[in-house]
Structures
1.
Amino acid sequence: MNAVEPSPAADWLEHAVFYEIYPQSFRDSNGDGIGDLHGIIEKLPYLHSLGVTGLWINPCFESPFRDAGYDISDFYRVAPRYGTNEDLRTLFAEARKLGIRVMLDLVAGHTSDQHPWFRESQRHERNRYTDWYIWTDSVWTWSAPNQQVVVGAAERDANYIPNFFYFQPALNYGYAQPDPKAPWQQAVDAPGPRAVREELKKIMRFWFDLGASGFRVDMAGSLVKNDPDGRATAALWHDFRTWMHREYPDRAMVSEWSQPQVAIPAGFHMDFLLPFSKPGYKSLFRPTAPGATAYFDPSGLGDIRQFLDEFEPLYAATKGQGFIAIPTGNHDTVPRLGDGKDPRELAVVYAFLLTMPGVPFIYYGDEIGMRSVAGLPSKEGGFGRTGARMPMQWDASPDAGFSTAPAGRLYLPIDSAADRPTVAAQEMDPHSTLNTVRTLIALRQAHPALQASGAFAEVVARSGEALFVYERASRGERIMVAVNPAARPCEARLPATVEFSEARQLAGEAGAFQCDAQGWTVQLPAVSYAVVEIE
Ligand code: GLC
Ligand code: CA
């Protein structure tokens, strides 16, 4: 694979801050209890005031909604519950007037089992779609190594491989190493896989032509099967990037892969760090190992090295080629960032997230510290994820400004907590999480050093110490960031190798950086941060 060519998309990504919208829960404009595209259009001024310059909208296409829309039955049509293709075109255009680009969700790996392609593929007679999905050679082939198999579901004398839930049959992109003992496993260049790739390109072209600025690619690493190092899947995406570079050079793609060292050389402009692969990202906010403490925990018992030891090699491997995206969370992650955190604690988290290299993504509601709700019955295949998909809390009205439908008709109930955070209340409070996020986004956008490709270097980052200090730099501008998530003051002497003679405060605690005869020290009170420009 050749190195990916730099693209003009990199220009707008450089200062981009993204916001993920779960469309069914954001804003219901017509009172039917479910969020919709006009609801998003209504809220564009709010998003603009927040300072975000990119949106990612979860799948909004026709679907039986058994996995909240990640089970698509028509890739070319907006689901009627959200509006029409024309509404989406309007959203693209209106957003763009405010400098906001919109990305859609590309569910490349599978369809709904209700998709007409799959219905045809299930038939006994050979047809155009026979090889569009992965079928075993006979209904009596009950299992395949390392793969799920759905048995006896079709008229066809064969079983299919699902990609996620059983009703999400995997599209056939072939096998990197087809098993000679299982001839039903096709090569990546067999006619079926080739046709599926062409169709995927057609889908992308369709939405690019309507005005989409790019895609978040669902399960991007899942396409080619038996592809242990991801090489064949990476080669596929590399072809797509080469095509985009030629025909749609200003559009961008972000992958749900969480392997930036694979995804970015393959051609993705950005790749998410996510909880499902290694522990580094989880260790920031949601550690799962028994007895583990998050780095952003006021006990100060967390360890920033758990994150950095994983992040640094990924950053080094992708620097100059693409960006690592660190999200506040997403529609799959519980708890939400705001769970159990007060506005001061959240301010420290955002000071970090919005001054790191790469491209930040804010999950809707996280900008007000919205909390997840436990114990709800599963909605549309959400299961344990349902509580992180609640209606956005705009104001103090009964439906929280999300809708005007009677409570019983809402997509999901409103968080019943009396102290649930709302946009309206936080607008009034200069120290609210909302206003802190706004200030920090504006700071990022005013300083190239803080943007996507500004250099990043650790300054103080040791196990057993809560204080984390790092430097960002670009074109002669140097900025130092210090965060202290612990509920006690912290202090550290900066290494003598970091040279500067002045520290001008940009955000957070004043006077945190002090110089004496031995050099610079940083002192931060409990749960606080400081951002300074140095010279
Ligand atoms: C991704 C989505 C998730 C969905 C799954 C199957 O992980 O983020 O919500 O259920 O893919 O498409
Ligand atoms: Ca609606």
2.
Amino acid sequence: MTNASPGGVTETEWSAAVDAVRGLTPGPDGDEVQLICHVNPDGDALGSMLGFALALRERGITRLRATFPGDFELPTPYQDLPGVELLVPEPEAFRAPALVMTFDVAAESRLGDLVALLRAPCVVVLDHHASNTRFGQVNLVDPRAAATSVVVDGLLSRLGVPLDAAIAECLYVALATDTGSFKFDMTTPEVHELAARLIAAGISPGDISRRIFDTRPFGAMKLAGEVIGRATLDPTAAGGQGMVWTYATQADLARHDQRPYVLDTLIDPVRGVAEADVAVVIKETPQGDWSVSLRSKGAVDVSRVAVSLGGGGHRLAAGFTGHGTPEEVAATVKGLLAANLI
Ligand code: AMP
Ligand code: MN
Ligand code: MN
């Protein structure tokens, strides 16, 4: 029995990925392997990538680097993840690695300038976005998986790599973040079965959850209060099922001396509003455009909304890059909701 969700990945693809990893020459003169996750990495992107990195290192792959595009800044909760020492800034990525593996990357557009590395002789994609563009030679893409870490677990089990505590911590962070602490629809029996095996490997779920979900700077809490305080409810949106939206600017971050990642969890209180199916948080980027988070309770396919605006994601959780004022971005989203009712 395998531990990955069946169906999304063919046995041919699993075998090709196993062969690509088993074919690597280990050691200091061995093959270079570059691991990449998506821009603005979240818990699934980092946890999946570092968990697999640790497994490769245990197999003797020492010419091994992990990276992500853009500023080399990790959200504070992820700075202590096992394997974080394998992370290098984008400019220090290998130039011509033998193998490239991507984690939680739905499309080339999420790779920034690292897209050039897709010229490597072998590219293996591990992901769970239904919108994945299958840009590798080998595509381990399972839209039924709750997190990319479920796909990583499937590959590790086929490689015969046991889950030690360090790997398990990475995969648990990935699984817990992408399932919203085991609350979302994707929280299947397989998710809990994987969580059970990860906990059995010796991790402390209470400590991890406290660090990842329940610890924030005082300024981040004050900032959240302001951003939530300016939320707008539009009951007419989404064919009358409602939309609630808010925004946060770079000036808000500066006033509270906070880093952008603290805005990423603000979608959670906003999406809890009973009167709205759709929640939208519009976050200003350092470049002056807007990183937009979309969530639906089930009435709207927000991934279709995001894709039509150049972004992507899942049916009930998606995002895109917006332009104009926050009001204009909200109006653009509202204009697309009624056409994308499920
Ligand atoms: P977020 O709102 O940032 O938590 O993202 C929700 C989902 O949408 C995740 O699966 C992301 O991978 C996806 N997503 C967010 N922003 C973008 C974007 N600009 N392009 C493609 N996918 C995105
Ligand atoms: Mn992600
Ligand atoms: Mn993910």
3.
Amino acid sequence: MTPDACGGHTTVILTDLQPTADDIAGDVLAGLSMTPKRLPSKYFYDARGSQLFEQITRQPEYYLTRVELALLDASMPAIATAVAAHAHVVEYGSGSGRKTHRLLEGLDDPVAYTPIEISKTALLASVGRLADAFPGVEMLPVCADFTHPVPLPQPSRGTGHTLVFFPGSTLGNFLAEDAKRLLRSMRVTMGPRGRALVGIDLDKDPVLIEAAYNDAAGVTAEFTLNLLVRLNRDIGSDFDVSAFVHRATYSRERMRIETHLVSQRAQDVHLAGRSFHFDAGEAMQVEYSHKYTDHSFATLIADAGLRVVERWNDPQDWFGLRLLAPA
Ligand code: AVI
């Protein structure tokens, strides 16, 4: 661990755990070799992809962010009561800061804030936005991969406990086995007295869910197709972006949005000296967004050694916040 102090009014100490860089080309070659073909959704978030995702969160059909923000506001007094004072808030990913702002404002004297994120630029930007607003909260960002256990920096004011914050239903983008692995790591990171506040999108009318992933302005379609633009630029593939279309459908049985890029014609895509054939109409899987019931969520976290200690839903039961503790 090598902490460096940065400037600004509030002390910001970055811990760089030097996460291993992703092997994008290797992952893409592996995914294109599968039947059916698939690409990892974690590669959506280059600079343009992050910008498009931010735009998605403001689309009228994408209820998740709006409803979660309102739920956080409405539940904040109860959350502050359930979480002991002087928490060290540890966020998985760095988000846009809107939710973190509400959480830090509503908790009882949080001592420190630690976003954990692979991109150092995104990490410092998120801390920069919050440092001025919360001069009493030490900013201790960690550059690391949060899917593994992360040794946390120690706040100088000392703290009784850690509160991991994982909003946005980002957990839903992981397949069940990967979600369990992540939750097990979270349990280690937060420690025996820690808590986690996790946002989950709930199973509901498929019409509402499908609309959220097929907004009329086409921002989600552009977000999905940007994956191909990014791969062409970063690993030298030659996807014809205009020959694929975005398709997102809800599987009631699996309780998840399944997003595909569908080839509009027979074509060959080249990468690293290899050629991959697409039939006309062939669908390549690019993202899952799982939705939950109380039962499915409790089963998932139980396998990771966690339990729900408090739950809050919005009045329509569209989105939930769950406070978790080690089982
Ligand atoms: C980040 N994640 C929770 C979003 C979701 O809803 O699955 C990503 C997204 N994909 C399409 N729209 C939004």
